[in-house]
């Protein structure tokens, strides 16, 4: 995949508009007038044979008349003229282009064909082309508007926002303006025939002035481009905040697809993005709030807990609740801090955390501001959130003082001011100060910044969210247990995965031989289709430990079975390695169209669908990956040992995960799905046994190792 | 608890202001000027010896000069003069009062004493008194402002909002105004020395004009008043939307309290409120959005699924994701509907659900509106959400058409219009039309309305949320397993709860006698402090079925034990009823200060802390309650039977829950805590066994039935 140079696109010295119009409401007219209005400094070349001049710019009759140094072409012609325009532009050495025109992949077969040709041309020529079917982009710091959508000109912050929906792009522009911010870069990616979502991310990650990148993502087109962009974000320490949507298609597509790849997608995305320290948000508001916070607040260079300073008891309780809900740690104030606050605040102020400074303190503002500084200076505190509401008349006094406090500290200082009037909003917009609208929204955004910063500083990954513990793909469930017993064990055994061994015998001597071959202790069970409840029939002996015991057990089982059901056809007695008790886990593998084979791990057995305590990650896994997966499920507590049971053999479990991931990766050409449930994790030192496995090939089920071997548990 | 008559408070014909001030910024001045400004129709009597007249009203020198028919007194005097004022007001037959004055329970010991006296007087006199330390209330439809807080006069909807925080009250007033609504009734409850939060709820539930009641609740003061109010909401079909906060105190209080009552509180509240069909929200935005939706949208008289109609693909995906996340069912359109839409919409419109009508349809508006009507007429559809964005210039055309569509249907029709300008907001405010701000917020509010309506229509209760499956109180955990074996089993057995029976014997004949007494099959285990791992020592025999087998087992165990550790002191052999395999659950009881004894039930054993699949409900339980509890945990899937195991004995489990709840209720004078974990639920027909129980009395631990009896599982 080409790494496009997007500099000429976002910082053009000259712009041509192919299909320029004098009508300001047309997509060929809007950018021209907006460029003029905003005062774009470079050259502008409208191209349209119908005009000699538009908006004061000389209009060229055709693309051939363009000079050979144009950085960016905006293409606003009919869809069937797009490719030929682009070909002509290439002859004029155009350095980049954006196609507004629609009528491509989004309208069906004919459009898809046109778009494929476009993609072919882009690949061949190497010209970075945005769109088609997009509303373009802006770089407001350099007065570049290559877009026909409304633009927020009254606030420009070093935020880049990339959207796979034009509508979401413009709507979030409005939403973020409401909390005092504006995008410098805004991109609607359209159909992404050339430059894709993550190419933009990659470019912005490398722009020094950009503080934070946001995005609305339906799906990545190319893993290589995504890998490159996210590596770049990590390297340049650019926070990336994504609203990844399209997670509900699994339901709609369940009928047509048994691969689980779509259902898997959203969980795999989550896991993959977590690993890259991408901040994943869950709504439009959370998106803009988090971007605004990153833009406005300082990212501290060391970790510290949060102090909540509030004039309203209610707001303090809401924030404290949210801190607990989101796992944001509240600071324990140093006794010295508390002592100082006692002197500064009214006697009935609450000096815990939240610190309720009371409304009365508004009558002694110096004490309030000094209190905030005292709290900021507490070594236990990394972030102070100050909550205030209404009282717009105090804004002119407050905002400069708050700004001053913020500039005097290296810590994070956030102000949540609820219910403010438009004038106060405007005052905040003019300051460089961080302003958040409500207690709940403040703490939600803070959680995102906190997690990002913790991961950045400690290199540890995000805790897996509850969504990540996704539903086990319906597909796995649908085929589970339906296939015949076969040679699956052989596949697994080749990768060193432990499976129970067993043999059906029909004589005492064969039983003794089998037991010696398998190794003591063994389990013995009657094998008869007519005896379903083997234990009830006295047909099971566990923990058989010697030749003598085998002989006795053989006779006893046979007699019991005969007595239990004289008409039963006895096929023999199954002698099998005794499987130690343990915790049941599930290990599986699914093929994802974007990520390839992905490994699923979680608490298994009968608990698998109920608790969905499952995590997914692309194969192959390193030992570190596998260990992280094991640690990330809730059931890790059980594996470590709980209530007097365990610890269990986590070392072998990690090894087994790695081997299964290698198996899935090696065999991915034919392997569609692997589902081993349960895998029994025995006590520490006693290993792991894959008891029941289902293997599905690309075309048909290949193998199912049945638990002929069912432990008496 | 008195049921106050709040009519004179909220619909007064005459208002006295004790401590009236001519200073508009003072709490004794603000209501006077605001009443004048809004045009209160009744009489106003300022009382203050300092003035002859304020704002054109004749000012009385003292309370004694008041006429005897005054409905409401606003008290704005110093805290130490409040009680005497109230006593004087009583002599003037005052019908209700609100105390603005602070300086009571919120400032410590002295204030608490004053407040207790106040409460005593209120109880004795029966006069409904609001506050103290409150910012009052409004009834804007009748021009009543008994408040000193800012009031939103430009929008009055039949919404009542009650807040235990004055700040939250005023802030949500602003937030709801942003989405086009305003409260008719707004109450800041203050310290609730007299009238409490739920007294207000009870009153508003009985007011015919009120469409929806909202509240910010930190905690109920009195269960009787809460019961009464919620019964009234159910009876009058008034939706009650609560932001219940203070759920994080459990962390802070964990050190001082081992009762778990605070931690339990929030889970018990949730469970209790769910049962009363109270809508519980999780943030300030969700609160106002839900209130606005109930105010504006029609509550359909039958259930139906949701159709999402959108001009933006992105918004459609977000809404579909949210529908799945929140369990809001999407409608499957009738083929006839789809056929009609094909004629009305552009060829590349997506006719699934979401229905993407495309931006192009804005050029043929009649087709758009007709499409919406076609979808509303689909029998599978109960609710249509129409998403639109920006394009404010279309608002004058759109809003009347949308209003018309809404008035022509009995179904729920909701418009989400994102990123609108202030003028459009104002147009929506002027219409009676339902307007929501973003896709995520729309579906979140819709979920709340949907759930409420489903419960209303079907009588079924809300599904238990993930929060409700709360962490098992730390307290239970802290004491678990530390007490001595004792007589707990006796307590439980008296209530018919099955516990395993067993006996330690020291001779073969005693073993046989014990086994016969207990009933076969039995388990036999060596009893020796020196032999911890009984199985390793060959010291365990399960499924022993006859006298003969007992004798053989006795010898074998004794010999094995002697061989295993010749120095071990053998106390004897434990003969015990063999416990069938099954699912481990936990049943417990905690004392809650408000709700009394509450029963905890969930998946137990080693899974208990990990999955927190637990539900709580006040005792005593009816069989129906117990059955609902069993059905409400995630693990119900397992109990019903999953992956070839089960079904388990749910009938006996329900019975056991009822009996344990009766035990807890009967014994609540001395019983502080009961923790039975695990309770084994056997297969259907085979009952339930309480294997290990911890009972804690009010002062000390009373009993712990240890699992001397540990099943070999």
Query: Helix/strand-derived class of chain A?
Result: alpha/beta
Q: State the helix count of chain A.
A: 24
Helix content of chain A: 25-40%
CATH topology of the largest domain in chain A: Rossmann fold
Oligomer: homodimer
Just name the CATH architecture of the largest domain in chain A. Answer: 3-Layer(aba) Sandwich
**Largest sheet, spatial ordering of strands of chain A:** 9-8-11-10-12-13-14
Please give a structural write-up.
Two copies of one chain form a homodimer. Chain A has 713 residues and is α/β, with parallel strands linked by helices. In chain A, the strands form six sheets. Chain A has a seven-stranded mixed beta sheet with strand order 9-8-11-10-12-13-14, with helices on both faces. In chain A, strands 24, 25, 26, 27, 28, 29 and 30 form a seven-stranded antiparallel beta sheet that branches. In chain A, strands 2-1-5-6-7 form a five-stranded parallel beta sheet, with helices on one face. Helices cover 37% and strands 21% of the residues of chain A. Chain A folds into five domains: 1-133, 3-Layer(aba) Sandwich (Rossmann fold), CATH 3.40.50.720; 149-296, 3-Layer(aba) Sandwich (Rossmann fold); 298-458, Rossmann fold (3-Layer(aba) Sandwich), CATH 3.40.50; 501-577, Dna Ligase, domain 1 (2-Layer Sandwich), CATH 3.30.1490; 581-705, ATP-grasp fold, B domain (D-amino Acid Aminotransferase, Chain A, domain 1). Chain A contains 24 helices and 30 strands. Chains A and B meet through helix 5, helix 8, helix 11, helix 16 and helix 21 of A and helix 5, helix 8, helix 11, helix 16 and helix 21 of B.
């Amino acid at each position: 995949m080409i790494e496009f140079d997007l500099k000429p696109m976002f910082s053009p010295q000259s712009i041509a508009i192919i299909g320029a119009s004098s009508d300001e409401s047309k997509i060929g007219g809007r950018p021209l007038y907006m460029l003029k209005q905003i005062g774009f400094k470079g050259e502008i070349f409208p191209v349209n044979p119908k005009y000699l001049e538009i908006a004061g710019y000389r209009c060229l009759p055709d693309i051939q008349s363009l000079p050979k140094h144009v950085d960016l072409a905006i293409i606003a012609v009919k869809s069937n003229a797009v490719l030929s325009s682009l070909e002509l532009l290439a002859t004029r050495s155009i350095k980049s282009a954006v196609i507004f025109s629609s009528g491509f992949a989004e309208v069906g077969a004919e459009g898809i064909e046109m778009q494929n040709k476009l993609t072919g041309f882009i690949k061949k020529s190497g010209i970075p082309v945005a769109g088609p079917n997009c509303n373009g982009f802006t770089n407001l710091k350099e007065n570049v508007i290559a877009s026909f959508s409304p633009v927020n000109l009254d606030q420009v912050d070093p935020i880049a926002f990339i959207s796979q929906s034009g509508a979401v792009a413009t709507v979030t522009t409005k939403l973020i303006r409401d909390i005092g911010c504006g995008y410098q870069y805004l991109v609607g990616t359209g159909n992404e025939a050339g430059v894709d979502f993550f190419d933009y991310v990659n470019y912005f990650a490398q722009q020094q002035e950009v503080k934070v990148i946001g995005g609305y993502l339906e799906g990545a087109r190319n893993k290589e481009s995504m890998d490159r962009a996210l590596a770049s974000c990590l390297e340049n320490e650019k926070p990336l905040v994504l609203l990844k949507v399209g997670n509900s298609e699994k339901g709609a597509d369940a009928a047509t697809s048994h691969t689980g790849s779509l259902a898997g997608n959203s969980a795999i995305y989550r896991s993959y993005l977590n690993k890259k320290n991408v901040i994943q948000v869950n709504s439009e508001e959370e998106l803009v709030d988090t971007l605004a916070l990153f833009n406005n607040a300082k990212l501290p260079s060391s970790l510290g807990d949060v102090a909540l300073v509030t004039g309203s008891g209610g707001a303090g309780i809401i924030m404290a609740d949210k801190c607990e809900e989101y796992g944001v740690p509240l600071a324990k104030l140093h006794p010295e801090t508390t002592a100082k606050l006692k002197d500064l605040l009214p006697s009935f102020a609450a000096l815990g955390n939240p610190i309720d400074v009371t409304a009365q303190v508004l009558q002694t503002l110096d004490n309030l501001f000094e209190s905030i500084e005292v709290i900021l200076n507490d070594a236990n505190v990394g972030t102070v959130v100050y909550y205030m509401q209404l009282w717009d008349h105090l804004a002119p006094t407050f905002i400069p003082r708050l700004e001053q406090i913020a500039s005097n500290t290296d810590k994070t200082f956030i102000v949540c001011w609820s219910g403010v009037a438009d004038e106060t909003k405007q005052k905040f917009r003019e300051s460089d100060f961080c302003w958040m609208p409500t207690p709940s929204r403040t703490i939600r955004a803070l959680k995102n910044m906190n997690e990002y910063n913790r991961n950045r500083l400690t290199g540890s990954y995000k805790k897996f969210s509850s969504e990540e513990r996704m539903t086990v793909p319906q597909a796995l469930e649908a085929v589970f247990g339906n296939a015949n017993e076969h040679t699956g064990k052989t596949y697994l055994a080749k990768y060193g995965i432990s499976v129970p061994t067993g043999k059906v015998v029909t004589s005492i001597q064969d039983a003794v031989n089998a037991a010696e071959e398998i190794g003591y202790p063994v389990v013995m069970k009657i094998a008869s289709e007519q005896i379903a409840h083997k234990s009830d029939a006295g047909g099971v002996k566990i923990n058989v430990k010697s030749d003598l015991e085998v002989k006795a057990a053989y006779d006893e089982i046979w007699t019991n079975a005969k007595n239990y059901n004289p008409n039963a056809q006895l096929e023999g007695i199954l002698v099998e390695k005794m499987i130690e008790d343990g915790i049941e886990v599930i290990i599986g593998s699914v093929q994802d169209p974007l990520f390839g084979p992905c490994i699923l791990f979680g608490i298994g057995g009968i608990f698998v669908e109920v608790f969905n305590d499952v995590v997914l990650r692309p194969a192959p896994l390193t030992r570190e990956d596998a260990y992280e997966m094991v640690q990330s499920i809730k059931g890790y507590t059980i594996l470590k040992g709980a209530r007097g049971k365990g610890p269990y053999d986590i070392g072998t479990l990690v090894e087994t995960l790695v081997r299964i991931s290698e198996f899935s990766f090696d065999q991915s050409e034919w392997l569609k799905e692997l589902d081993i449930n349960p895998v029994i994790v025995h006590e520490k030192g006693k290993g792991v046994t894959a008891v029941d496995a289902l293997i599905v090939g690309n075309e048909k089920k290949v193998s199912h190792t049945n638990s002929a071997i069912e432990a008496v548990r």
